[in-house]
Protein backbone atom coordinates (compact mmCIF):
# COMPACT_ATOMS: atom_id res chain seq x y z
CA UNK A 1 0.00 0.00 0.00
CA UNK A 2 1.45 3.36 -1.00
CA UNK A 3 1.69 6.32 1.29
CA UNK A 4 -1.10 7.93 -0.65
CA UNK A 5 -3.36 4.92 -0.31
CA UNK A 6 -2.67 4.88 3.40
CA UNK A 7 -3.60 8.49 3.89
CA UNK A 8 -6.61 7.96 1.69
CA UNK A 9 -7.78 5.05 3.83
CA UNK A 10 -7.72 7.30 6.84
CA UNK A 11 -9.45 9.99 4.80
CA UNK A 12 -12.29 7.62 4.11
CA UNK A 13 -12.57 7.03 7.84
CA UNK A 14 -12.78 10.77 8.49
CA UNK A 15 -10.57 13.82 8.04
CA UNK A 16 -7.00 13.25 6.82
CA UNK A 17 -4.17 14.05 9.21
CA UNK A 18 -3.35 17.73 8.83
CA UNK A 19 -0.26 18.89 6.96
CA UNK A 20 -0.58 22.64 6.94
CA UNK A 21 -3.10 25.21 7.99
CA UNK A 22 -3.63 28.67 6.62
CA UNK A 23 -5.65 30.77 9.01
CA UNK A 24 -7.00 34.29 8.57
CA UNK A 25 -4.25 35.26 6.18
CA UNK A 26 -4.30 38.71 4.61
CA UNK A 27 -1.78 40.07 2.18
CA UNK A 28 -1.70 43.74 1.36
CA UNK A 29 0.72 45.19 -1.18
CA UNK A 30 1.70 48.77 -0.59
CA UNK A 31 -0.95 50.38 1.59
CA UNK A 32 -4.17 49.61 -0.17
CA UNK A 33 -3.88 46.75 -2.69
CA UNK A 34 -5.52 43.79 -0.97
CA UNK A 35 -4.17 40.75 -2.78
CA UNK A 36 -5.63 38.27 -0.35
CA UNK A 37 -8.24 38.72 2.31
CA UNK A 38 -8.95 36.40 5.24
CA UNK A 39 -7.90 33.15 3.62
CA UNK A 40 -8.46 29.94 5.54
CA UNK A 41 -7.38 26.54 4.29
CA UNK A 42 -6.76 23.27 6.06
CA UNK A 43 -4.46 21.13 3.96
CA UNK A 44 -4.59 17.43 4.79
CA UNK A 45 -1.88 14.88 3.99
CA UNK A 46 -2.52 13.43 0.55
CA UNK A 47 -4.87 16.19 -0.59
CA UNK A 48 -4.79 17.37 -4.16
CA UNK A 49 -6.14 20.90 -3.87
CA UNK A 50 -6.73 23.19 -6.84
CA UNK A 51 -6.91 26.93 -6.34
CA UNK A 52 -9.22 28.00 -9.14
CA UNK A 53 -10.18 31.54 -10.03
CA UNK A 54 -9.86 34.45 -12.45
CA UNK A 55 -6.64 36.42 -12.67
CA UNK A 56 -6.12 38.78 -9.75
CA UNK A 57 -7.91 36.49 -7.29
CA UNK A 58 -4.77 36.01 -5.22
CA UNK A 59 -4.19 32.35 -6.03
CA UNK A 60 -0.56 32.85 -6.96
CA UNK A 61 -0.11 35.16 -3.97
CA UNK A 62 -1.48 32.40 -1.75
CA UNK A 63 0.99 29.96 -3.25
CA UNK A 64 3.92 32.33 -2.71
CA UNK A 65 2.88 32.78 0.91
CA UNK A 66 2.71 29.03 1.46
CA UNK A 67 6.09 28.65 -0.27
CA UNK A 68 7.54 31.19 2.15
CA UNK A 69 8.57 33.54 -0.67
CA UNK A 70 6.66 36.33 1.01
CA UNK A 71 5.01 36.73 4.38
CA UNK A 72 1.39 37.35 5.33
CA UNK A 73 0.43 40.88 6.38
CA UNK A 74 -1.59 39.21 9.10
CA UNK A 75 -2.69 35.69 9.97
CA UNK A 76 -0.58 32.55 10.12
CA UNK A 77 0.55 29.67 7.96
CA UNK A 78 1.54 26.72 10.11
CA UNK A 79 2.89 23.26 9.37
CA UNK A 80 1.45 20.48 11.55
CA UNK A 81 4.91 19.00 11.93
CA UNK A 82 8.13 20.91 11.69
CA UNK A 83 9.16 21.51 8.09
CA UNK A 84 12.46 19.94 7.08
CA UNK A 85 14.76 20.43 4.08
CA UNK A 86 13.16 18.94 1.01
CA UNK A 87 9.65 18.86 2.44
CA UNK A 88 8.48 21.58 0.12
CA UNK A 89 8.99 21.99 -3.59
CA UNK A 90 7.61 24.21 -6.30
CA UNK A 91 6.88 23.96 -10.00
CA UNK A 92 6.36 27.32 -11.66
CA UNK A 93 4.63 28.33 -14.86
CA UNK A 94 7.97 28.49 -16.61
CA UNK A 95 10.16 25.38 -16.47
CA UNK A 96 12.81 27.59 -14.82
CA UNK A 97 15.79 25.41 -15.64
CA UNK A 98 19.41 26.51 -15.50
CA UNK A 99 20.43 26.67 -19.17
CA UNK A 100 24.09 26.05 -18.37
CA UNK A 101 23.43 22.76 -16.59
CA UNK A 102 22.46 19.36 -17.93
CA UNK A 103 19.10 17.78 -17.15
CA UNK A 104 20.63 15.66 -14.37
CA UNK A 105 22.43 18.68 -12.88
CA UNK A 106 19.18 20.62 -12.90
CA UNK A 107 17.39 17.84 -11.04
CA UNK A 108 20.32 17.73 -8.62
CA UNK A 109 19.75 21.38 -7.61
CA UNK A 110 17.60 20.86 -4.44
CA UNK A 111 20.17 18.40 -3.11
CA UNK A 112 23.08 20.64 -4.07
CA UNK A 113 21.53 23.47 -2.07
CA UNK A 114 21.26 21.09 0.88
CA UNK A 115 25.01 20.66 0.57
CA UNK A 116 24.87 17.06 -0.64
CA UNK A 117 27.21 15.53 -3.20
CA UNK A 118 26.10 14.42 -6.63
CA UNK A 119 27.48 10.90 -6.21
CA UNK A 120 25.53 10.40 -3.01
CA UNK A 121 22.17 11.16 -4.61
CA UNK A 122 22.71 9.86 -8.14
CA UNK A 123 20.18 7.07 -7.67
CA UNK A 124 17.48 9.47 -6.49
CA UNK A 125 18.13 11.72 -9.48
CA UNK A 126 17.91 8.84 -11.92
CA UNK A 127 14.74 7.61 -10.28
CA UNK A 128 13.10 11.04 -10.50
CA UNK A 129 14.04 11.22 -14.19
CA UNK A 130 12.59 7.75 -14.74
CA UNK A 131 9.40 8.88 -13.06
CA UNK A 132 8.97 11.61 -15.68
CA UNK A 133 10.28 9.39 -18.47
CA UNK A 134 13.45 11.34 -19.23
CA UNK A 135 16.18 9.02 -18.01
CA UNK A 136 17.63 8.90 -21.54
CA UNK A 137 18.07 12.67 -21.55
CA UNK A 138 20.03 13.15 -18.36
CA UNK A 139 23.04 14.58 -20.21
CA UNK A 140 21.05 16.82 -22.54
CA UNK A 141 20.94 20.58 -22.08
CA UNK A 142 17.57 22.32 -21.61
CA UNK A 143 17.74 24.05 -24.99
CA UNK A 144 17.67 20.66 -26.68
CA UNK A 145 14.30 19.79 -25.13
CA UNK A 146 10.74 20.63 -26.15
CA UNK A 147 8.47 22.67 -23.89
CA UNK A 148 6.76 19.58 -22.51
CA UNK A 149 10.05 17.86 -21.77
CA UNK A 150 11.41 20.94 -20.00
CA UNK A 151 8.35 20.94 -17.78
CA UNK A 152 8.96 17.27 -17.01
CA UNK A 153 12.50 18.10 -15.91
CA UNK A 154 11.05 20.81 -13.70
CA UNK A 155 8.67 18.26 -12.17
CA UNK A 156 11.48 15.74 -11.69
CA UNK A 157 13.45 18.42 -9.83
CA UNK A 158 10.43 19.04 -7.60
CA UNK A 159 9.95 15.33 -6.92
CA UNK A 160 13.57 14.37 -6.34
CA UNK A 161 13.58 15.17 -2.63
CA UNK A 162 10.30 13.29 -2.12
CA UNK A 163 8.58 16.41 -0.78
CA UNK A 164 5.59 16.25 1.52
CA UNK A 165 4.04 19.23 -0.23
CA UNK A 166 4.38 20.20 -3.87
CA UNK A 167 3.18 23.63 -4.99
CA UNK A 168 2.39 24.03 -8.66
CA UNK A 169 1.69 27.48 -10.12
CA UNK A 170 -0.14 27.03 -13.44
CA UNK A 171 2.60 24.68 -14.59
CA UNK A 172 0.94 23.66 -17.85
CA UNK A 173 -0.61 26.98 -18.86
CA UNK A 174 1.98 27.63 -21.56
CA UNK A 175 1.79 24.16 -23.13
CA UNK A 176 -0.40 22.96 -25.98
CA UNK A 177 -3.53 21.03 -25.06
CA UNK A 178 -2.28 17.61 -26.15
CA UNK A 179 0.87 17.90 -24.07
CA UNK A 180 -1.14 19.32 -21.21
CA UNK A 181 -3.57 16.35 -21.15
CA UNK A 182 -0.69 13.96 -21.17
CA UNK A 183 1.07 15.75 -18.33
CA UNK A 184 -2.19 15.81 -16.36
CA UNK A 185 -2.40 12.03 -16.63
CA UNK A 186 1.26 11.69 -15.78
CA UNK A 187 1.14 13.93 -12.75
CA UNK A 188 -1.61 11.78 -11.27
CA UNK A 189 0.34 8.61 -12.03
CA UNK A 190 3.47 10.06 -10.37
CA UNK A 191 1.49 11.03 -7.34
CA UNK A 192 0.16 7.48 -7.04
CA UNK A 193 3.78 6.38 -6.81
CA UNK A 194 5.20 8.89 -4.37
CA UNK A 195 2.07 10.10 -2.61
CA UNK A 196 2.74 13.76 -1.92
CA UNK A 197 0.23 16.49 -1.20
CA UNK A 198 -0.30 18.95 -4.03
CA UNK A 199 -1.60 22.50 -4.15
CA UNK A 200 -2.21 23.35 -7.77
CA UNK A 201 -2.98 26.84 -9.06
CA UNK A 202 -4.93 26.91 -12.31
CA UNK A 203 -7.51 28.90 -14.20
CA UNK A 204 -8.79 25.87 -16.07
CA UNK A 205 -11.98 24.34 -14.71
CA UNK A 206 -11.35 21.10 -16.63
CA UNK A 207 -7.85 20.70 -15.31
CA UNK A 208 -8.90 21.30 -11.73
CA UNK A 209 -11.77 18.77 -11.87
CA UNK A 210 -9.63 16.13 -13.52
CA UNK A 211 -6.73 16.47 -11.10
CA UNK A 212 -7.95 17.40 -7.69
CA UNK A 213 -10.14 16.09 -4.93
CA UNK A 214 -10.71 19.55 -3.51
CA UNK A 215 -11.31 22.69 -5.56
CA UNK A 216 -10.99 26.01 -3.78
CA UNK A 217 -12.79 28.69 -5.77
CA UNK A 218 -11.47 32.20 -5.41
CA UNK A 219 -12.65 35.63 -6.50
CA UNK A 220 -10.82 38.86 -7.26
CA UNK A 221 -10.72 42.36 -5.79
CA UNK A 222 -10.11 41.60 -3.04
CA UNK A 223 -8.63 38.14 -3.57
CA UNK A 224 -10.56 35.74 -1.39
CA UNK A 225 -11.92 32.21 -1.10
CA UNK A 226 -15.55 31.96 -2.19
CA UNK A 227 -16.25 28.31 -1.65
CA UNK A 228 -14.85 24.82 -1.82
CA UNK A 229 -16.01 21.89 -3.93
CA UNK A 230 -15.15 18.24 -3.45
CA UNK A 231 -14.56 15.97 -6.44
CA UNK A 232 -15.73 12.57 -5.28
CA UNK A 233 -14.19 10.48 -8.10
CA UNK A 234 -11.63 8.11 -6.53
CA UNK A 235 -8.01 7.89 -7.69
CA UNK A 236 -6.44 6.51 -9.78
CA UNK A 237 -8.28 8.46 -12.42
CA UNK A 238 -7.80 7.59 -16.03
CA UNK A 239 -8.60 8.96 -19.44
CA UNK A 240 -12.04 7.29 -19.06
CA UNK A 241 -12.90 9.80 -16.31
CA UNK A 242 -12.26 12.67 -18.70
CA UNK A 243 -15.01 11.47 -21.01
CA UNK A 244 -17.50 10.32 -18.34
CA UNK A 245 -20.82 12.10 -17.69
CA UNK A 246 -19.75 12.39 -14.09
CA UNK A 247 -16.73 14.49 -15.13
CA UNK A 248 -18.96 16.71 -17.25
CA UNK A 249 -21.31 17.20 -14.32
CA UNK A 250 -18.45 18.09 -11.99
CA UNK A 251 -17.09 20.57 -14.53
CA UNK A 252 -20.51 22.18 -14.81
CA UNK A 253 -20.76 22.48 -11.04
CA UNK A 254 -17.30 24.05 -10.86
CA UNK A 255 -18.08 26.43 -13.72
CA UNK A 256 -21.26 27.55 -12.02
CA UNK A 257 -19.47 28.08 -8.74
CA UNK A 258 -16.86 30.09 -10.60
CA UNK A 259 -19.55 32.15 -12.33
CA UNK A 260 -21.05 32.80 -8.94
CA UNK A 261 -17.63 33.94 -7.74
CA UNK A 262 -17.33 36.36 -10.64
CA UNK A 263 -20.93 37.49 -10.07
CA UNK A 264 -20.20 38.17 -6.43
CA UNK A 265 -17.46 40.44 -7.65
CA UNK A 266 -19.79 42.25 -10.06
CA UNK A 267 -22.14 43.07 -7.21
CA UNK A 268 -19.48 45.14 -5.53
CA UNK B 1 4.49 5.62 -18.42
CA UNK B 2 6.59 6.29 -21.46
CA UNK B 3 7.13 9.28 -23.63
CA UNK B 4 6.45 9.05 -27.29
CA UNK B 5 5.61 12.57 -28.29
CA UNK B 6 9.04 14.06 -27.93
CA UNK B 7 11.40 12.91 -30.61
CA UNK B 8 12.96 16.19 -31.68
CA UNK B 9 16.31 15.35 -30.23
CA UNK B 10 16.73 12.25 -32.36
CA UNK B 11 15.40 13.98 -35.46
CA UNK B 12 17.91 16.76 -35.18
CA UNK B 13 20.85 14.36 -35.16
CA UNK B 14 19.86 11.89 -37.87
CA UNK B 15 20.98 13.09 -41.30
CA UNK B 16 18.27 13.18 -43.91
CA UNK B 17 18.63 10.40 -46.44
CA UNK B 18 16.22 12.04 -48.84
CA UNK B 19 17.50 13.74 -52.01
CA UNK B 20 17.62 17.50 -51.54
CA UNK B 21 15.36 19.63 -53.69
CA UNK B 22 16.52 22.47 -55.92
CA UNK B 23 16.01 25.14 -53.30
CA UNK B 24 18.05 23.19 -50.75
CA UNK B 25 20.82 22.56 -53.26
CA UNK B 26 21.03 26.25 -54.07
CA UNK B 27 21.18 27.03 -50.38
CA UNK B 28 23.99 24.52 -49.83
CA UNK B 29 25.96 25.93 -52.78
CA UNK B 30 25.52 29.44 -51.46
CA UNK B 31 26.73 28.40 -48.05
CA UNK B 32 29.82 26.70 -49.49
CA UNK B 33 30.64 29.77 -51.58
CA UNK B 34 30.25 32.00 -48.52
CA UNK B 35 32.60 29.79 -46.56
CA UNK B 36 35.35 30.12 -49.15
CA UNK B 37 34.67 33.82 -49.73
CA UNK B 38 35.02 34.51 -46.02
CA UNK B 39 38.76 33.79 -46.30
CA UNK B 40 39.46 34.43 -49.92
CA UNK B 41 38.05 37.96 -50.17
CA UNK B 42 39.96 39.55 -47.25
CA UNK B 43 43.16 37.87 -48.47
CA UNK B 44 42.65 39.29 -51.95
CA UNK B 45 42.01 42.75 -50.54
CA UNK B 46 45.25 42.63 -48.53
CA UNK B 47 47.27 41.43 -51.51
CA UNK B 48 45.82 44.09 -53.80
CA UNK B 49 46.48 46.85 -51.27
CA UNK B 50 50.06 45.69 -50.83
CA UNK B 51 50.61 45.75 -54.57
CA UNK B 52 48.99 49.20 -54.80
CA UNK B 53 51.14 50.46 -51.91
CA UNK B 54 54.27 49.13 -53.57
CA UNK B 55 53.37 50.64 -56.96
CA UNK B 56 52.56 54.05 -55.44
CA UNK B 57 55.93 54.20 -53.71
CA UNK B 58 57.82 53.15 -56.85
CA UNK B 59 55.94 55.32 -59.32
CA UNK B 60 56.08 58.47 -57.16
CA UNK B 61 59.68 57.74 -56.13
CA UNK B 62 58.83 58.21 -52.46
CA UNK B 63 62.01 57.83 -50.33
CA UNK B 64 61.97 54.95 -47.82
CA UNK B 65 62.31 57.35 -44.87
CA UNK B 66 58.88 58.75 -45.79
CA UNK B 67 57.06 55.62 -46.89
CA UNK B 68 58.94 52.30 -47.22
CA UNK B 69 57.86 49.63 -49.67
CA UNK B 70 56.04 46.67 -48.10
CA UNK B 71 58.96 44.40 -48.96
CA UNK B 72 61.31 46.62 -46.97
CA UNK B 73 58.96 46.51 -43.97
CA UNK B 74 58.97 42.71 -44.12
CA UNK B 75 62.76 42.69 -44.42
CA UNK B 76 63.10 45.02 -41.41
CA UNK B 77 60.75 42.83 -39.42
CA UNK B 78 63.05 39.86 -40.02
CA UNK B 79 66.34 41.74 -39.54
CA UNK B 80 65.23 43.62 -36.41
CA UNK B 81 63.42 40.62 -35.01
CA UNK B 82 65.66 40.24 -31.90
CA UNK B 83 65.01 43.84 -30.81
CA UNK B 84 61.37 43.85 -31.80
CA UNK B 85 60.67 40.47 -30.22
CA UNK B 86 62.09 41.57 -26.86
CA UNK B 87 59.91 44.67 -27.01
CA UNK B 88 56.91 42.59 -27.98
CA UNK B 89 57.45 40.43 -24.90
CA UNK B 90 57.53 43.53 -22.67
CA UNK B 91 54.32 44.89 -24.18
CA UNK B 92 52.66 41.49 -23.92
CA UNK B 93 53.68 41.22 -20.28
CA UNK B 94 52.11 44.57 -19.43
CA UNK B 95 49.00 43.74 -21.45
CA UNK B 96 48.46 40.32 -19.90
CA UNK B 97 49.26 41.56 -16.40
CA UNK B 98 46.81 44.45 -16.77
CA UNK B 99 44.16 42.15 -18.19
CA UNK B 100 44.58 39.73 -15.30
CA UNK B 101 44.24 42.50 -12.72
CA UNK B 102 41.30 43.92 -14.65
CA UNK B 103 39.56 40.54 -14.49
CA UNK B 104 40.22 40.13 -10.78
CA UNK B 105 39.34 43.72 -9.96
CA UNK B 106 36.37 43.94 -12.31
CA UNK B 107 34.77 40.68 -11.22
CA UNK B 108 35.60 41.29 -7.57
CA UNK B 109 34.04 44.75 -7.60
CA UNK B 110 31.02 43.48 -9.55
CA UNK B 111 30.43 40.79 -6.93
CA UNK B 112 30.75 43.37 -4.14
CA UNK B 113 28.35 45.70 -5.96
CA UNK B 114 25.70 43.02 -6.35
CA UNK B 115 26.07 41.88 -2.76
CA UNK B 116 25.51 45.32 -1.34
CA UNK B 117 23.56 48.14 -2.86
CA UNK B 118 25.31 50.55 -0.46
CA UNK B 119 28.78 49.65 -1.70
CA UNK B 120 27.62 50.11 -5.28
CA UNK B 121 26.08 53.51 -4.54
CA UNK B 122 29.30 54.59 -2.83
CA UNK B 123 31.80 53.47 -5.45
CA UNK B 124 30.15 53.15 -8.83
CA UNK B 125 30.40 56.88 -9.67
CA UNK B 126 34.17 56.71 -9.16
CA UNK B 127 34.49 53.74 -11.46
CA UNK B 128 32.72 55.79 -14.11
CA UNK B 129 34.98 58.82 -13.49
CA UNK B 130 38.04 56.59 -13.79
CA UNK B 131 36.68 55.27 -17.08
CA UNK B 132 35.77 58.56 -18.72
CA UNK B 133 38.96 60.44 -17.86
CA UNK B 134 41.36 60.02 -20.81
CA UNK B 135 44.28 57.88 -19.71
CA UNK B 136 46.81 60.06 -21.57
CA UNK B 137 45.98 62.90 -19.21
CA UNK B 138 46.20 60.82 -16.06
CA UNK B 139 49.27 58.78 -16.96
CA UNK B 140 51.90 61.53 -16.36
CA UNK B 141 50.62 61.93 -12.80
CA UNK B 142 50.76 58.19 -12.22
CA UNK B 143 54.37 58.10 -13.36
CA UNK B 144 55.20 60.90 -10.93
CA UNK B 145 53.72 59.10 -7.95
CA UNK B 146 54.66 55.53 -8.82
CA UNK B 147 58.38 54.77 -8.79
CA UNK B 148 58.35 51.46 -10.60
CA UNK B 149 57.84 51.94 -14.31
CA UNK B 150 56.29 48.48 -14.71
CA UNK B 151 53.81 49.21 -11.91
CA UNK B 152 52.90 52.53 -13.53
CA UNK B 153 52.30 50.87 -16.87
CA UNK B 154 50.19 48.19 -15.23
CA UNK B 155 48.06 50.77 -13.43
CA UNK B 156 47.44 52.71 -16.63
CA UNK B 157 46.50 49.64 -18.65
CA UNK B 158 44.31 48.43 -15.80
CA UNK B 159 42.37 51.69 -15.60
CA UNK B 160 41.56 51.44 -19.28
CA UNK B 161 40.66 47.75 -19.22
CA UNK B 162 38.71 47.07 -16.05
CA UNK B 163 35.55 49.04 -16.69
CA UNK B 164 33.97 46.87 -19.40
CA UNK B 165 34.51 43.84 -17.19
CA UNK B 166 33.05 45.59 -14.17
CA UNK B 167 29.96 46.92 -15.90
CA UNK B 168 29.26 43.78 -17.92
CA UNK B 169 29.73 41.44 -14.99
CA UNK B 170 27.55 43.61 -12.74
CA UNK B 171 24.84 43.52 -15.40
CA UNK B 172 25.25 39.75 -15.74
CA UNK B 173 25.08 39.07 -12.00
CA UNK B 174 21.85 41.06 -11.95
CA UNK B 175 20.28 39.26 -14.90
CA UNK B 176 19.76 35.92 -13.21
CA UNK B 177 16.25 34.64 -13.99
CA UNK B 178 13.95 35.87 -11.22
CA UNK B 179 12.04 32.58 -11.24
CA UNK B 180 15.28 30.78 -10.54
CA UNK B 181 15.93 33.23 -7.71
CA UNK B 182 12.56 32.29 -6.21
CA UNK B 183 13.39 28.64 -6.59
CA UNK B 184 16.71 29.12 -4.81
CA UNK B 185 14.86 30.87 -2.01
CA UNK B 186 12.32 28.08 -1.66
CA UNK B 187 15.18 25.61 -1.31
CA UNK B 188 16.81 27.80 1.30
CA UNK B 189 19.95 28.72 -0.65
CA UNK B 190 22.57 30.74 1.19
CA UNK B 191 23.95 33.98 -0.22
CA UNK B 192 27.12 32.15 -1.24
CA UNK B 193 25.19 29.35 -2.94
CA UNK B 194 23.11 31.86 -4.84
CA UNK B 195 26.26 33.59 -6.03
CA UNK B 196 28.10 30.40 -6.91
CA UNK B 197 25.35 28.38 -8.55
CA UNK B 198 23.04 31.05 -9.96
CA UNK B 199 24.56 34.50 -10.36
CA UNK B 200 28.05 33.63 -11.55
CA UNK B 201 26.88 31.19 -14.25
CA UNK B 202 24.24 33.71 -15.37
CA UNK B 203 26.94 36.38 -15.60
CA UNK B 204 29.40 34.26 -17.59
CA UNK B 205 28.25 35.29 -21.10
CA UNK B 206 28.23 38.97 -20.06
CA UNK B 207 31.65 38.66 -18.45
CA UNK B 208 33.10 37.05 -21.57
CA UNK B 209 31.68 39.87 -23.70
CA UNK B 210 33.41 42.36 -21.40
CA UNK B 211 36.60 40.34 -21.47
CA UNK B 212 36.84 40.54 -25.25
CA UNK B 213 36.60 44.32 -25.10
CA UNK B 214 39.02 44.51 -22.18
CA UNK B 215 41.61 42.38 -24.01
CA UNK B 216 41.92 44.96 -26.77
CA UNK B 217 41.75 47.86 -24.31
CA UNK B 218 44.55 46.54 -22.11
CA UNK B 219 46.82 46.44 -25.17
CA UNK B 220 45.83 50.01 -26.02
CA UNK B 221 46.35 51.01 -22.38
CA UNK B 222 49.79 49.40 -22.31
CA UNK B 223 50.88 51.12 -25.54
CA UNK B 224 49.52 54.53 -24.59
CA UNK B 225 51.08 54.39 -21.13
CA UNK B 226 54.39 53.50 -22.67
CA UNK B 227 54.23 56.51 -24.96
CA UNK B 228 53.73 58.69 -21.91
CA UNK B 229 56.39 56.95 -19.84
CA UNK B 230 58.72 57.31 -22.77
CA UNK B 231 62.03 56.41 -21.12
CA UNK B 232 64.23 53.83 -22.78
CA UNK B 233 66.65 51.25 -21.53
CA UNK B 234 65.84 47.79 -20.39
CA UNK B 235 62.22 46.80 -20.43
CA UNK B 236 61.13 48.90 -23.38
CA UNK B 237 58.03 47.82 -25.21
CA UNK B 238 56.85 48.22 -28.77
CA UNK B 239 55.53 51.75 -28.24
CA UNK B 240 58.99 52.87 -27.19
CA UNK B 241 60.47 51.22 -30.30
CA UNK B 242 58.03 53.19 -32.44
CA UNK B 243 58.96 56.47 -30.74
CA UNK B 244 62.66 55.70 -30.96
CA UNK B 245 62.45 54.70 -34.64
CA UNK B 246 60.49 57.90 -35.30
CA UNK B 247 63.27 60.08 -33.84
CA UNK B 248 65.81 58.29 -36.04
CA UNK B 249 63.60 58.44 -39.12
CA UNK B 250 63.75 54.65 -39.22
CA UNK B 251 60.32 54.46 -40.81
CA UNK B 252 60.50 50.80 -41.88
CA UNK B 253 60.99 49.79 -38.25
CA UNK B 254 58.07 51.97 -37.22
CA UNK B 255 55.90 50.06 -39.64
CA UNK B 256 57.26 46.73 -38.47
CA UNK B 257 56.52 47.55 -34.82
CA UNK B 258 53.09 48.83 -35.74
CA UNK B 259 52.41 45.61 -37.61
CA UNK B 260 53.38 43.60 -34.53
CA UNK B 261 51.05 45.61 -32.30
CA UNK B 262 48.16 45.09 -34.70
CA UNK B 263 48.88 41.36 -34.93
CA UNK B 264 49.04 41.12 -31.15
CA UNK B 265 45.64 42.76 -30.88
CA UNK B 266 44.17 40.34 -33.39
CA UNK B 267 45.64 37.33 -31.59
CA UNK B 268 44.30 38.55 -28.24
CA UNK B 269 40.83 39.09 -29.67
CA UNK B 270 40.82 35.75 -31.47
CA UNK B 271 41.94 33.75 -28.45
CA UNK B 272 39.41 35.44 -26.15
CA UNK B 273 36.68 34.78 -28.72
CA UNK B 274 37.77 31.15 -28.87
CA UNK B 275 37.74 30.90 -25.07
CA UNK B 276 34.26 32.40 -25.02
CA UNK B 277 33.05 29.97 -27.65
CA UNK B 278 34.44 26.97 -25.79
CA UNK B 279 32.81 28.00 -22.52
CA UNK B 280 29.41 28.78 -24.00
CA UNK B 281 29.02 26.42 -26.93
CA UNK B 282 26.99 23.87 -24.99
CA UNK B 283 24.23 26.15 -23.78
CA UNK B 284 24.31 29.79 -24.72
CA UNK B 285 22.35 31.22 -27.65
CA UNK B 286 25.31 33.27 -28.89
CA UNK B 287 27.41 30.16 -29.51
CA UNK B 288 24.77 27.91 -31.02
CA UNK B 289 24.55 27.43 -34.75
CA UNK B 290 21.02 27.08 -36.00
CA UNK B 291 20.24 24.11 -38.18
CA UNK B 292 17.82 25.97 -40.43
Question: What keywords describe this structure?
Answer:
heterodimer, A: 268 residues, alpha/beta, Rossmann fold, six-stranded mixed β-sheet, three-stranded antiparallel β-sheet, 9 helices, 9 strands, 40% helix, 24% strand, globular, B: 292 residues, mainly alpha, MetI-like fold, 2 domains, 0% strand, disordered N terminus
Question: What does this entry look like structurally?
Answer:
The complex is a heterodimer of chains A (about 270) and B (about 290). Chain A has about 270 residues and is of the alpha/beta class. Chain A has one domain: P-loop containing nucleotide triphosphate hydrolases (Rossmann fold), CATH 3.40.50.300. In chain A, about 40% of the residues lie in helices and about 25% in strands. In chain A, a hairpin with a 3-residue loop joins β1 and β2. In chain A, α3 runs parallel beside α5. Chain B folds into two domains: about 40 residues; about 220 residues, MetI-like fold, CATH 1.10.3720. In chain B, about 80% of the residues lie in helices and about 0% in strands. The N terminus of chain B is likely disordered. Chains A and B meet through β5, α3, α5 and α6 of A and α1, α8 and α9 of B.
SSE arrangement:
The complex is a heterodimer of chains A (268) and B (292).
Chain A: H1 3-13, E1 18-29, E2 33-44, E3 48-52, H2 59-67, E4 74-79, E5 88-91, H3 103-113, H4 122-131, H5 147-159, E6 165-169, H6 177-194, E7 197-202, H7 205-211, E8 214-219, E9 224-230, H8 239-242, H9 245-267
Parallel strand pairs in A: 3-7, 3-8, 5-6, 6-7
Antiparallel strand pairs in A: 1-2, 1-4, 8-9
Helix pairs in contact in A: 3-5, 4-5, 7-9
Chain B: H1 8-13, H2 22-59, H3 70-79, H4 81-115, H5 117-132, H6 135-145, H7 149-174, H8 178-186, H9 191-229, H10 238-247, H11 251-280
CATH class of the largest domain in chain B: Mainly Alpha
**Beta strand count of chain A:** 9
Give the CATH H-level superfamily of the largest domain in chain B. MetI-like
Number of helices of chain B: 11
Kindly estimate the percentage of residues of chain B that lie in beta strands according to DSSP.
under 5%
Global shape of chain A: globular
- Amount of helix of chain B: over 70%
| Average of the residue pLDDT scores of chain B | 88
Count all strands of chain B and give the number.
0
Question: What is the fourth-level CATH superfamily of chain A?
Answer: P-loop containing nucleotide triphosphate hydrolases
